[in-house]
Design brief:
heterodimer, A: 101 residues, mainly alpha, 2 domains, elongated, B: 239 residues, 12 helices, globular, cell membrane (chain B)
């Protein structure tokens, strides 16, 4: 077992638990300034954008893996597919593509 | 009096369990996929169970795998987790408004179970929420998450290698699957994700900043810029 990973998990657990716990336990009626509330609400969407691009284009030496994966996932999600279906669709599309290259 | 209190608590607990059953079913495929991807990323079964049991945050766990796969440092992964999960601070603050007064240790305990999903269910519930309700809700969601992560890992071990290779897109596809419904709802989301994607690309490709910090910089920059513009346009409307 890799001890760096264990410490990382404990660290992740702490930084996840503290924001969950603090307002309920410590702060009774204190609120952040409206500006920072807005910033923090923006964070998940921005994070997702940054995590998808440019990383997806580097999943394989053949850049078409990333491009096809991006397009197929986007189309499936746009048509209203559930996240697990989106994942399956893009994996299947890339498995088929891999057969032809 | 003692009997009445116990009955109320156990009925609240049962109510929480019932509300949590939907989340438990919803978590099943995501946790199974997490277990599978943890295996392909190279984590051991114990590490996978520990991550689900100690961190208990879907998106952060997926991102941790994503970052581990590209060799990001542990500190950066913890920082990214913090940035991503600080949104729970607001959920916890909002939940605090409708939470019945309870012993602080009970609130500290059920606070661990706050996720996007349990928060949404609790926030939509009529009236107040108490510790018994939150324990019932939290246990269902948490149990499903941890058990299915382990099952996903064990089942994933038997996947053919070619499928495991094409699974490399899975994390990205999941992010897209999470993002697109939001993109459809709000134009602001498109701008946020787009700005962060551009800043992240500049940081990693041209400035050679490590991926973990690039994500933190891109996220904060996009979120602050967007909020600044939102504030400006509000001010204009007021004039």
């Amino acid at each position: 077992m890799n001890s760096t990973i264990i410490w990382m998990i404990i660290g992740m657990g702490l930084v996840t638990y503290i924001p969950r716990m603090l307002p309920l336990v410590v702060f009774q009626r204190v609120k952040l300034p409206a500006f920072w509330q807005g910033v923090l609400k923006n964070v998940p969407y921005a994070t997702l954008g940054a995590l998808i691009i440019p990383g997806i284009f580097f999943i394989n030496d053949d850049v078409w893996f990333g491009i096809l994966g991006l397009i197929s996932a986007f189309v499936a999600a746009w048509l209203g597919a559930n996240v697990i279906i989106v994942v399956l669709v893009s994996v299947i599309v890339l498995s088929v593509y891999a057969l032809f290259v | 009096m003692e009997t009445t209190w116990t009955e109320t608590a156990s009925s609240s607990f049962r109510q929480g369990v019932q509300a949590g059953a939907t989340i438990a079913i919803g978590y099943m495929p995501i946790a199974l996929t997490f277990g599978l991807l943890a295996k392909t990323t190279g984590l051991t079964l114990v590490e996978t169970i520990m991550m689900s049991a100690i961190v208990y945050a879907g998106a952060a766990q997926y991102i941790a795998l994503n970052l581990l796969a590209v060799g990001t440092g542990a500190l950066e992964i913890v920082m990214t987790t913090f940035i991503l999960n600080i949104r729970h601070f607001l959920m916890s603050a909002s939940l605090n408004e409708k939470a019945e007064p309870d012993a602080l240790w009970k609130k500290a305990l059920y606070a661990f179970g706050i996720t996007d999903e349990t928060f949404s269910v609790a926030a939509m519930k009529e009236g107040t929420v108490n510790a018994s309700y939150m324990f019932g809700l939290g246990l269902m969601a948490y149990g499903s998450w941890v058990v299915n992560s382990a099952i996903g890992y064990i089942v994933g071990a038997n996947l053919p290698k070619s499928l495991q290779e094409s699974m490399s897109v899975a994390l990205y596809a999941m992010f897209i699957g999470l993002l697109v419904p939001a993109l459809k709802k709000q134009r602001k989301t498109v701008l946020l994700a787009g700005m962060a994607a551009i800043i992240n690309s500049i940081c990693t490709i041209f400035l050679h900043i490590s991926k973990g910090w690039a994500v933190v910089i891109a996220t904060l920059a996009a979120a602050i810029i967007m909020q600044w513009f939102a504030k400006e346009s509000e001010a204009e409307q007021d004039e």
